[in-house]
Amino acid sequence: MSEGARAVPGHTGDGPVLIGVVDECQATALGVASWLDDLPGARVVVAPPEQVAEPYGRVGALADVLVMELVYRGRARLPDIGRLAHAGREVVVYTRSVDRPTAAAVTGAGALCCVSTTDGREALVPVLAALLAARGDRGPRAAGAEPEPEPEEREEPEPEPEPELEERPSLSAREIDTTVLWLRSPSKHVVARQLRISPHTVDMYLRRVRHKYEQAGRPAHTKAELLTRAIEDGLITVGCAPD
């Protein structure tokens, strides 16, 4: 466990992105933080018990990204999510099980996505990694590393590079519009109304997008995975938190 996972220190706005984990169960919060400890360019902190009740207070003021449990003392924290998102924080919500109404309520409140703790780190870590990559932040180790010496010149030709498996698929404008709207909407029916197409057509576009990512070696089977791909490829822009 990193040093930052024990308390919430001051954040100067420089250096790594500060990810705050908020959960009334400290054991769960520490477990989630341990999943994120190895993310490059990030420092993970866990809100102490006295700060869990109001994540939009000290924790929300210091952290750039909030990873929080949806339920606190039996009630969904939708107002808290809304206040954090309005303040410019990226919010990723997790809970035991995620159904369509829950996901719609969470994203409607302003969170980027809602992931299930049943899926564990496989669902949560890629989303956070994509957020960090989109911000362009570098960890202290990368920032302070000594530059590698340039290789000596050789007379023999360099070997041809191996073809890259992971690449950005070629998506049509309609596929991009449908994907972005769906990631920001509670249901495919909402997307269909906005684009004036049928829900079946929305589903067809999303199947095409997922197939193209699969062919590129970057599967996106779930909504959280597709959100990760969209952030990685710049389809959804993640803004930096204000200083």
What does this structure look like?
- The longest helix is centred in the last third of the chain and has 17 residues, at 199-215.
- Helices cover 43% and strands 12% of the residues.
- The protein has helices at 26-36, 49-52, 58-62, 78-86, 100-109, 121-135, 140-144, 173-183, 188-195, 199-215, 223-232, and strands at residues 17-22, 42-46, 65-69, 71-72, 75-76, 90-95, 113-116.
- α6 runs parallel beside α11 (223-232), α8 (173-183) packs across α10 and α9 packs across α10 (199-215).
- It is globular and about 50 Å long.
- β4 and β5 (75-76) form a beta hairpin.
- The two termini are 27 Å apart.
- It has a five-stranded parallel β-sheet, sandwiched between helices. It has a two-stranded antiparallel ribbon with strand order 4-5.
- The chain folds into two domains: 17-137, Response regulator (Rossmann fold, 3-Layer(aba) Sandwich), CATH 3.40.50; 173-233, Orthogonal Bundle (Arc Repressor Mutant, subunit A).
- The chain is built from eleven helices and seven strands.
- It is α/β, with parallel strands linked by helices and 243 residues long.
- One of its GO terms (molecular function) is DNA binding.
- Residues 138-171 are annotated as: Disordered.
- Residues 147-165 have a biased composition (Acidic residues).
- InterPro entries: Sig_transdc_resp-reg_C-effctor (IPR016032), WH-like_DNA-bd_sf (IPR036388).
- This is LuxR family two component transcriptional regulator.
Give the class from helix and strand content and strand pairing. alpha/beta
- What is the CATH C-level name of the largest domain? Alpha Beta
CATH topology of the largest domain: Rossmann fold
What separation lies between the terminal Cα atoms?
Answer: 27 Å
Computed CA radius of gyration, to the nearest angstrom: 20 Å
Q: Please estimate the helix content.
A: 40-55%
Task: Give the H and E element order.
Answer: EHEHHEEEHEHEHHHHHH
Low-confidence region ranges: 1-13, 137-158, 160-165, 239-243
Determine the CATH superfamily of the largest domain. Answer: Response regulator
Work out the helix count: 11
**β content, as a range?**
5-15%
Mean pLDDT rating: 77
Across the major sheet, the strand order is: 2-1-3-6-7
Major β-sheet profile? 5 strands, parallel
What is the global morphology?
Answer: globular
Number of strands: 7
- Under the CATH scheme, which architecture of the largest domain would be assigned? 3-Layer(aba) Sandwich
The total number of structural domains is 2
Biased composition (Acidic residues): 147-165
Protein name: LuxR family two component transcriptional regulator
Region (Disordered): 138-171
GO molecular function, one term: DNA binding
